[in-house]
Design a protein that fits this description.
alpha/beta, SH3 type barrels, TIM Barrel, 3 domains, eight-stranded parallel beta barrel, five-stranded antiparallel beta sheet, 15 strands, 43% helix, binds S-adenosyl-L-homocysteine
Length: 424
């Protein structure tokens, strides 16, 4: 969804459009169309994705105006900082004072935050992360849809339920028309403006075939496409970019090279990182992160994960627990909150389905600890249960309608607007 509201183009600087949203300006890249100052558009992830006729735009903006400012008020109330209420060690609160002031935080200080297990310190950490999220990015919350179109996988990641060697899993592969049909439903029926196409590393979906699918999608639908099909060489990435994909979701899983090799039968972390570097060089938006709770993983490793995601220019951080066992919820929340403190003004931080599977209250807790993004599973119901990366996935049997309703109810209760106003 990212139920984006229309924005008005107030200036054009080459490919960059300056867009007004109720008096606030954002930038978005315009690649596809001839655009004039004064026209209305939808933008997503910093890209203009379609024009909106003026009459329709004004009607939507009218409808949203009151709600938009009402939500902002609620969010502001919920993200206020009241340091006085919480008594914690001075050395800890000083770091958070600095973070709240926007001063640079050293790595040792971030590690001190990462290492705390003290309840009061954790509460303060989450509050400051939420404060920073509000201060820099206000109340917008990305709501992307995800279509899991194949669970065939030639990789054999030890922790993953769809790994090649799991012979007990029933495999499926959606046809091109089924994928298009799922996109049609997500875009036309439910209003999604950004979709992730995810699969195992399925050799049947060659870059050429994926490019054809993406082209067909882009010809028909105004939607931002993220690919999440595993590792690919630079030529493949370029082919899919040319076809119209603009984002890649690829976790590096862990920044610790030894741990990485252990979990992936000796494969190299550097190879996976190269994909992310190539993708960035081509122009992709980067969505990346790691798993929390891997055997032998330390707090230092987790902090390095956060810093690596930032170094890789992550537009969105995706950190989630390893399941079924999982770390305690606090550990996941800590990673989300420290991510926000490490990259206060840029990052979109997603509450992952993994975290939602670990803790029923994950979305609310995560959104109040620095996160500002969620995903909705729009995979057709007959396939969803087989995309079994881990057991009992949250929303595995929930209709898209129910997921959207629950998401909107929660977002509104927290004063968040399910919208993506582009990159400021
Ligand atoms: N083939 C794609 C998609 C892989 S599945 C790729 O390589 O990126 C998407 C993500 O699921 C993985 O990146 C991994 O972080 C996560 N995942 C796999 N097994 C998991 C488990 N047992 N618990 C939690 N997350 C898991």
């Amino acid at each position: 969804m990212c139920y984006a509201i229309p924005g008005k183009v107030i200036e054009l600087q080459g490919k960059t459009a300056i867009i007004d949203y109720y008096g606030e300006t954002k930038k978005a890249i315009n690649e596809f169309m001839d655009l004039q100052v004064g026209e209305y558009i939808y933008a997503q992830g910093g890209f203009v994705i379609s024009k909106v006729p003026e009459k329709e735009a004004l009607e939507i903006l009218d409808l949203w105006r009151e709600m938009f400012f009402e939500l902002r008020k609620t969010d502001l109330r919920l993200s206020r900082l009241d340091f006085e209420d919480i008594e914690v060690e001075k050395s800890f609160s000083l770091i958070l004072d600095k973070a709240a002031e926007g001063l640079p935080i050293k790595k040792e200080e971030l590690l001190r935050l990462m290492q705390t297990k003290n309840r009061k310190e954790l509460n303060l950490l989450f509050k400051v992360a939420n404060f920073l999220r509000q201060k820099h990015l206000q109340n917008s919350c990305c709501v992307h849809g995800i279509i899991e179109f194949s669970n065939y996988c030639s990789a054999d990641c030890t922790y993953c339920g769809i790994r090649k060697s799991n012979s007990s899993l029933k495999r499926y592969r959606m046809s091109e028309d089924e994928i298009l049909q799922a996109v049609d439903e997500a875009v036309n029926k439910y209003g999604f403006k950004a979709l992730v196409l995810q699969s195992g590393e399925d050799p049947a979906f060659t870059p050429e075939i994926m490019a054809r699918i993406i082209k067909r999608i882009k010809e028909k639908y105004a939607v931002l496409i993220f690919i999440s099909t595993g590792e690919m060489d630079s030529d493949g990435l370029q082919l899919l970019y040319t076809a119209g994909a603009r984002g890649i979701l690829l976790r590096f899983e862990t920044s610790n090279p030894e741990l990485y090799a252990k979990l992936h039968h000796g494969e190299k972390l550097a190879d996976r990182l190269q994909v992310l570097k190539d993708a960035y060089a081509i122009g992709y938006l980067i969505l990346t992160g790691s798993l929390i709770g891997l055997p032998g993983q330390t707090e230092d490793d987790l902090l390095n994960d956060i810093l690596l995601a930032k170094e890789l220019h992550a537009e969105m951080f995706t950190f989630g627990p390893v399941l079924p066992d999982g770390p305690p919820s606090e550990q996941v929340l800590k990673v989300l909150a420290v991510s926000r403190i490490a990259d206060p003004s840029n990052a979109k931080i997603v509450v992952t389905t993994g975290f939602e599977t670990l803790d029923q209250d994950a979305r609310r807790l995560g959104l109040l600890a620095g996160a500002n993004s969620v995903m909705i599973n729009v995979t057709p119901m007959q396939y969803r249960q087989f995309y079994n990366i881990y057991p009992n996935r949250a929303h595995g049997d929930e209709s898209i309608e129910k997921q959207i309703k629950d998401t909107l109810d929660l977002l509104y209760s927290l004063g968040r607007a399910p919208t993506d106003l582009g990159i400021s």
